[in-house]
Amino acid sequence: MALMITDDCINCDVCEPECPNGAISQGEEIYVIDPDLCTECVGHFDEPQCQQVCPVDCIPLDPDRVESREQLMAKYELLVSDK
Known about the structure:
The protein is an alpha+beta fold. The protein has one domain (about 15-80): 2-Layer Sandwich (Alpha-Beta Plaits), CATH 3.30.70.20. Helices cover about 20% and strands about 5% of the residues. A two-stranded antiparallel ribbon has the order 1-2. The mean pLDDT is about 95. Pfam families: Fer4_7 (PF12838). InterPro entries: 4Fe4S_Fe-S-bd (IPR017896), 4Fe4S_Fe_S_CS (IPR017900), PSI_iron-sulfur_center (IPR050157), YfhL-like (IPR047927).
């Protein structure tokens, strides 16, 4: 699954720099996660870094973007091959 940021976001700015894929950006009102870039940090870290630093716990799994670990790894490999 990709991750998502809920309306509980307080725009504290700590998640964006932690994302190794550049999937997090400032949206119109709160930060947003681009599901095409989110690998839940698979390929980089053991756990999603944005979830680790979020002070309000507003970054759950996106139930509309179910992906297996293998799919996330394939997305990671595609993203790093484009660099």
